[in-house]
């Protein structure tokens, strides 16, 4: 199930990389190449995830699929090598610009350059100034009682922000922002007030990928003043609170609580500012290119007798070594 799901995303990434090159313009080579690297890296991540999802039974069908996947991985890695060479060439022409937030901010905002003016405004405006498209409230004072109901009303492939105001409350639901739901914005009443809570975990038979209390796949997602948690506990092993696999995604003043695998920073470009993330083992992990600005990473003790703790772990493979987590001050 995981393999089929992620390969569909990988095919999408390969297609949008091809489409991006069809409109190649030397004047915008830096942006085009960064998009291509991001999406090819995404495709490679999905291919590796599929390969790792096999049960290693050694059946003939599994062996044949694994061989095909390894060939696909090699082709995608070759594409990344081509991008690297083009980056080297355009760098010589002074067309490349680095994308870390501290080097791409407009003015002194410290934000990545892919954050538009409209999105910057959403980060600082009061909710009364924003006029949300939908309001979620458990007490009946909003348009919807659950976040999932509000997401069902979001137009697909929307080009501008669709703001969902989530009033104070603990929302015990598995929330998924599908790939077709672009530019969705969650605004809460505070990370300790508006909270999405779940308890799916590996010990109970759920694949790590699917344990996420909150998963976002739609590009351009933003969350502000929100809390996310997986309450399964240390004894339940892998139990993800947040899985992020949407490009150009922002979390501002959010809290993510869990134990093992709290934040699955899966792939693409992400920016976290003024966030708190708690956990024990690999509690920030994945293959994304992410900046954590002025964030608090809090190590939790799995049990009173335990002394084994684990720091954040960005993934890297021989064919895709340039993924990284950057932890910075503002």
TrEMBL record:
Gene3D superfamilies tied to this protein: Invertase/pectin methylesterase inhibitor family protein, Single-stranded right-handed beta-helix, Pectin lyase-like
InterPro entries, sorted: Invertase/methylesterase_inhib, Pectin_lyas_fold, Pectin_lyase_fold/virulence, Pectinesterase_Asp_AS, Pectinesterase_cat, Pectinesterase_inhib_dom
Record domain Pectinesterase inhibitor: where: 3-79
Pathway involvement of the protein, from the record: Glycan metabolism; pectin degradation; 2-dehydro-3-deoxy-D-gluconate from pectin: step 1/5
Annotated Pectinesterase catalytic domain residues: 133-306
Positions of the catalytic residues: 282
Keyword field contains Cell membrane: no
Reaction(s) catalysed (UniProt annotation): [(1->4)-alpha-D-galacturonosyl methyl ester](n) + n H2O = [(1->4)-alpha-D-galacturonosyl](n) + n methanol + n H(+)
Coiled coil: none
GO molecular function, one term: enzyme inhibitor activity
Entry's EC annotation: 3.1.1.11
One Pfam family in the UniProt entry: PMEI
Gene Ontology terms describing biological process: cell wall modification; pectin catabolic process
Similarity comment: family membership: In the C-terminal section; belongs to the pectinesterase family.
Stated name of the protein: Pectinesterase
Organism: Vanilla planifolia
Lineage: Eukaryota, Viridiplantae, Streptophyta, Embryophyta, Tracheophyta
């Amino acid at each position: 199930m995981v393999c089929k799901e992620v390969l569909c995303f990988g095919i999408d990434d390969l297609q949008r990389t091809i489409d991006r090159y069809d409109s190649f313009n030397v004047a915008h080579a830096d942006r085009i190449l960064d998009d291509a690297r991001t999406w090819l890296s995404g495709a490679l991540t999905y291919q590796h995830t599929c390969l790792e999802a096999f049960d290693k039974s050694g059946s003939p069908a599994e062996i044949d699929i694994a061989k095909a996947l390894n060939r696909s991985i090699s082709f995608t890695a070759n594409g990344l090598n081509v991008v690297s060479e083009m980056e080297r060439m355009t760098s010589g022409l002074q067309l490349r610009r680095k994308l870390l937030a501290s080097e791409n901010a407009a003015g002194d905002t410290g934000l990545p350059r892919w954050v538009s003016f409209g999105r910057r405004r959403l980060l600082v405006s009061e909710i009364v100034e924003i006029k949300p498209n939908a309001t979620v409230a458990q007490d009946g004072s909003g348009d919807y009682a659950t976040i999932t109901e509000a997401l069902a009303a979001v137009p697909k492939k929307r080009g501008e922000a669709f703001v969902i105001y989530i009033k104070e409350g603990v929302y015990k639901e598995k929330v998924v922002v599908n790939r077709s739901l672009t530019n969705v914005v969650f605004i809460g009443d505070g990370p300790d007030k508006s909270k999405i809570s779940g308890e799916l975990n590996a010990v109970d038979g759920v694949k790590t990928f699917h344990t996420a209390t909150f998963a976002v796949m739609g590009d351009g997602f933003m969350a502000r003043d929100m809390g996310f948690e997986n309450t399964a506990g240390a004894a339940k092993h892998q139990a993800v609170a947040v899985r992020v696999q949407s490009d150009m995604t922002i979390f501002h003043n959010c809290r993510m609580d869990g134990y093992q695998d709290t934040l699955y920073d899966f792939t693409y470009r992400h920016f976290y500012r003024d966030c708190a993330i708690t956990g024990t083992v690999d509690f920030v992990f994945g293959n994304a290119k992410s900046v954590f600005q002025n964030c608090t990473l809090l190590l939790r003790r799995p049990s009173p007798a335990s002394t084994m703790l684990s720091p954040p772990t960005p993934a890297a493979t021989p064919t895709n070594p340039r993924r990284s987590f950057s932890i910075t001050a503002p």
